[in-house]
Amino acid sequence: MSETITTTVDTPLAQVLKKHEAKALATHLDLHTAGDLIYHFPRRYDERGEHTDMRGLQIGEQVTVLAQVQSVTVKPMRQRRGNMLEITLGDGSGTTLSCTFFNQAWRERELRRGRWGLFAGKVTDFRGKRQLNSPAYQLLSADATQDEAAEEIEEFAGALIPVYPAAQAVPTWTIARCVRTVLETFQPPKDPLPAAVRVSRDLAGIGMALREIHRPSSRGALEVAKKRLKWDEAFAVQLTLVQRRARAAASPGRSRPRVEGGILAKFDASLPYELTEGQAQVGEEIAADLAKPHPMHRLLQGEVGSGKTLVSVRAMLQVVDAGGQAALLAPTEVLATQHYRGIGAQLGALGRAGELDGDPAGTQLTLITGSLGAAARRAALAKVADGTAGIVVGTHALLYEGVDFHDLGLVVVDEQHRFGVEQRDALRAKAATPPHVLVMTATPIPRTVAMTVYGDLETSVLSQLPRGRSPIASHVVPPEKPAFLDRAWRRVREEVQKGHQAYVVCPRIGEGPSDEDVEPPGDNEPARRPPLAVTEVAPILEEGPLHGLRIAMLHGKLPADEKDAIMRRFAAGDLDVLVATTVIEVGVDVPNATVMIIMDADRFGVSQLHQLRGRVGRGSAPGICLLVTESVEGTPARERLDAVASTTDGFKLSEIDLEQRREGDVLGASQSGKHSHLRLLSLLRDEKLIKEARAEAGALVGDDPDLTRYPELAASVATLVDEERAEYLEKG
Q1: Which residues contact 668 (CB under 8 A, 6 or more apart)?
Q2: Where is this region: Disordered (predicted)?
Q3: Fewer CB in 10 Å around end: N or C, the chain?
Q4: What are the Cα distances from residue 576, in Å, to 17, 155, 580, 628?
Q5: pLDDT tens-place string over residues 621-676
Q6: Counting beta carbons within 10 angstroms of the beta carbon of residue 473, is it exposed (0 to 12), middle (13 to 18) or buried (19 or more)?
Q7: Overall CATH class of domain 263-462
């Protein structure tokens, strides 16, 4: 390569690297330009002799570990001809990892006991031991001269060895070599951060930060670089959200103030109980927002059963009183139907205006789902179009062409994480002027996530549970205590004998596993079995431990009328046990159900388990949730289940969930399917930095709403938070 070449963030990698290297980075990591590679930051840094804590390795993960060979064994294979080389790796933490090579005994000559190296591959589990099958590796010299060792360490960017997010075909040491080549001629961009912000927040320049993040001269210099690059990420997100909140505050909407003596007043007077303090307070916040001439954008979060639906009904009635219509969008037909029935029961005659037993001063409640018959659908659509239906409940069927509102004033989105941005936007587009939007979630969100992902939404929290709700006890049913599972089924029988009911939840419907359910086996390991399925578990229970009980199956592939009939029977007490998928996760309300057994509980996320558990203990009798797993003690999956069993505090669980998930998903990278340059920011660990970035963003946008005086900053924000992701952030 000529030294006169200057590499910028826009330079194609094919002009800087060898042809095969550029092709591999493009094909396997979607890295095409020098900027793509420079912003492909290491995920961690190793030092020879320091352990990398193998205890944190998860089955199925592609990993790179810096480790030392502790033992080497060659033995013949039992089932076929040939031999197997097995080495044991250690990292100084006391935990070991085995690596297996088939018919490659020659590797014994270089993989000698005591040698250090980087080993990369997929973590598998064989007979309870973690292992890597035929890993790629790069050994560090054991007997090199001092000069040779220094040169070799330099190849890995100094004493601190960067470990990159890698692919099987492009290991971390190849990425490190390519980064080194690019940095030799790299010209950093003009620093986009205003000088005043850099000085006041004591931040490094962009050029220094980008070099030190890849080839740190010391731990201190690395921390300085990380702080600057994290700041860029936080600042980009907060600028985007502050700009969008400012635009929303200035955009025209339609005021929907409270009306004295209207339907809402009658509804409140008819309630057989008092609102909780939280419900009353949040109700006032929403009422004030609805009365403003700008669209409300509010996030309502609260634990399962905290009374969010009642709050939303009161908001919808305020809009109906003001001459508008309200739409409640639910993710499933089961939940939409449940909402329709529940709201109908709450409204009583007030929701049946025009019918013989209806209150003429009320409104009409309408349900629109994909399974409505043609005649019923036509009648419902007519009521929506002429405004007769003040409250419309539905699934994504509300988004289809042909569903036309007379005057859509409020959109309530239940369980917002189940809907795509485009779906929510399609419903908002059905209003003549932008409607007010209330987003509800029963998955509590840590404060910094709300600040970063929902930063342009006002947030309300319902933390109190209504009086009469019972406590839920949770326990793990582990593989080392098989008698516990037998006891679990006896407990179901005991609850049924007391007149109660039970749920058994499975991760899969059945009818043959899909490809994603089965992990491919390594050369030397059995495939992990498919998750348990409703259609397999229900017959086993009927013939075995729950024989004689009234059992039914519920899952998403059943026809809508059949699902509805099963839920009605369960709610009426005509069934003892419902074997179901997560279709019951939200909204299903059967106060008589007191016990839930979740099979293969380790296959569910923390928030999902918390949601599922909220289906029991909804009446006066205490609830119990049993988490059945094959995960052994000490594994991340088991630790997750132990955490769920130890607390019913949804906010605490949401932080555990966030720690175990990729934060890029939270920030919307997975929504757009594109590169996310939001790589370093930790929503839990960097709360102080995010708050500082929020304050600086507010000041900057207040002074210069479109960043016209800072074109480099505007361009940097557009790169870090592209338009599609910005919309995702905006819409929650």
Answers
A1: 453, 676, 725, 728, 729
A2: 507-530
A3: N
A4: 66, 66, 13, 20
A5: 889 999 999 988 878 788 889 989 998 877 778 777 777 655 544 444 333 333 44
A6: middle
A7: alpha beta
| Structure confidence at residue 557 as a pLDDT band (50, 70, 90) | confident
Structure tokens at 672: 């757009």
Residue identified by tokens 């949770």 is 474
Strands 129-133 and 96-102: parallel
- As annotated, the residues of the chain forming the CATH 2.40.50.140 domain(s) are 13-198
pLDDT, tens digit (0-9, with 9 covering 90-100), for 307-345: 888 999 999 999 999 999 999 988 888 788 888 998 999
Task: Please tell me the pTM assigned to this model.
Answer: 0.66
Domain spanning 472-515+528-647: which CATH class is it, in words? alpha beta
Report how far residue 70's alpha carbon sits from residue 90's, in angstroms, rounded to the nearest whole number: 6
Query: Which segments within 281-394 are labelled E, that is strand?
Result: 297-302, 325-329, 364-368, 389-394
- In 446-559, DSSP assigns E strands to 458-462, 472-477, 501-505, 551-554
Q: Where in the chain is the domain with CATH 3.40.50.300?
A: 263-462, 472-515+528-647
Tokens 């955009």 found at: 251
Identify the architecture of domain 13-198 in CATH: Beta Barrel (2.40)
The span from the CA of 531 to the CA of 510, in Å, is: 9
